[in-house]
Design goal:
There is one protein chain. By secondary structure, the protein is an alpha+beta fold. Helices cover 21% and strands 41% of the residues. The strands form 2 sheets. Strands 1, 2, 4, 6, 7, 8 and 11 form a 7-stranded antiparallel β-sheet that branches. It has a 5-stranded antiparallel β-sheet with strand order 3-5-12-10-9, with no helix packed on it. Strand 6 and strand 7 form a beta hairpin. Helix 1 (2-29) runs antiparallel to helix 2 (205-224). The radius of gyration is 31 Å and the shape is elongated. Residues 1-5, 9-33 and 198-220 have low confidence and may be disordered. The chain binds calcium ion (2 copies). Residues 95, 97, 99, 102 line the site of one calcium ion. One calcium ion is lined by residues 95, 97, 99, 102.
Amino acid sequence: MRIASSRYLAALVGVAALAAASQTSFATVTAPPDCGDCVKDYKIGDYCDVTITSNSADPGLVVHTDIFNSVYGKEFSLSDGECKTFKLFSIWTDETYVNGDDTAPKNITVNLGFANPLVNAELDGETVGVKTFLGILQYGQVTWGAPVVIDLPGDRNFTVSLSDAPFNKGLFGLNEGECFGADICVTICQNSSVCDEGGGDVPEPASLSVLGLGAAALLARRRRR
Ligand SMILES: [Ca+2]
Ligand SMILES: [Ca+2]
């Protein structure tokens, strides 16, 4: 009786080891579908996909923008937790002095269209003329609202944000013109992702237990011999 029970115990230990071994080997061969941390490709759209709307006439500080040519069709890849930053556009004013009308904030909107994934990020901000110390220091300022989070279930989740900046700083007036403007950068960060490939070959828990039962039967037959 004692021998039988110890054999039974040995068989059980064997089955457990086999099941654990089979589970481990399957898990290392193929990753589950929601493994995360996948490298995803990004591509910015073309000329028509990237637009900026800003204050183009008085009242308010009249600003001009110019999108960098290197932006169109730009391609890069990100894994989870990784960010990509690059210059998106320049901003400047041709006004020479921050008057009363210029200190009222005006809306600025950037529409950043992606070709991959096929989505649009709309980023809103404000431009304003700033005059400090009795007009000694003057400049324009662009400030952006909250970053835009784009969630694509089953694919990826990423954040798009733009950099705040002062521009056309001057003493007793503004240093007007594009040369004294500022470059605005965009930062794209991948928060999470779902892998494209894999997931089809992972055994279900049910089939794993079938595997375990098969091993048990095999062991029992061996013990009977
Ligand atoms: Ca003005
Ligand atoms: Ca002015």
